[in-house]
Amino acid sequence: MIELKNDKIAIPVVLMAGIIWSFGPLVVRYMNDPNLVPWQYIFARGLTIFLVINLYLFFEEGKNFYKNYFRIGISGIIGGTGLGVAMITFIYSITNTSAAITLLCLAAMPFFTALLGFLFLKERISINVWVAIIIATVGIVIIALGNTQKSSLLGLVFGMISSIGFSVFSVTLRWRKETPKFTTVAFAGFFCVAVSVIIILSNDMVFLSTSYNSALFSFHGTLVCMGLILYSIGSKAIPAAELTLLSLMEVIGGIFWVWVPFLGINEIPSTNTIIGGFFLFMSIIYYSLTIKTNRRFIALN
């Protein structure tokens, strides 16, 4: 794998990863009624992630790349399952509420990761982190108070579940650092495919949506993989605390793309979302500036 040791080059590479990921919500908004074909979306996106990651591993490690699956272990299975659940609940979140709320839920991942690390890995949580978690909680409560409609509140709940799923993935990487990380991501794609196949077959549904939708499903999966590869290349040269700040590019960019009028969506966040988002951003910035060993939700370094 290409390794960048110069942070002046690595930072733009990681920023580019965040920008690529940030187009995901916009792609979903361009789909035709994605709320009616969530399992077809999950199937196509999961299959794309599984194929692209394995193709990347083949070119990176050669024909023996499949041996990584024998080293994935229980941590990789749990982490891949958590990541798969996060991918599944993402579509249910963003199709039931605004993209801003879904992305802000995902922005809370560092705090869920800290709590899960405290509960299962016995990692100590400092006072500064508790302060950041409290500030983030205030922001989430403010956002929740502004989502009184049943569907919007459901979207918020799914967004929180998605955030926790990503955090489970991150914590399993801390649990066993030797777990092959890209293989775990590929397993998450396979998990999505397996679950969606069961649901589709049991409900006598079709596997494919329209050709237009199917292309966007796969395109979204490709964006995820491209961002992961760039992130893994650049993150090795950047302190982990700075990575959390850089990861805000994904959230800010995602909210911006669905709002900017000339892209055709013009989704304006509510007042509560803006205020709650401000608290979340402040908590992340405070968290990044006060902790020395912060890890992003996908810590491929």
TrEMBL record:
It holds the Pfam family EamA. The chain crosses the membrane at residues 9-27, 39-57, 69-94, 100-120, 127-146, 152-173, 185-202, 214-233, 245-265, 271-289. Residues 10-144 form the EamA domain. The keyword NAD does not apply. InterPro entries: EamA_dom (IPR000620), EmrE-like (IPR037185). Keywords: Membrane, Transmembrane, Transmembrane helix. This is EamA domain-containing membrane protein RarD. The lineage of its organism: Bacteria, Pseudomonadati, Pseudomonadota, Alphaproteobacteria, Candidatus Pelagibacterales.
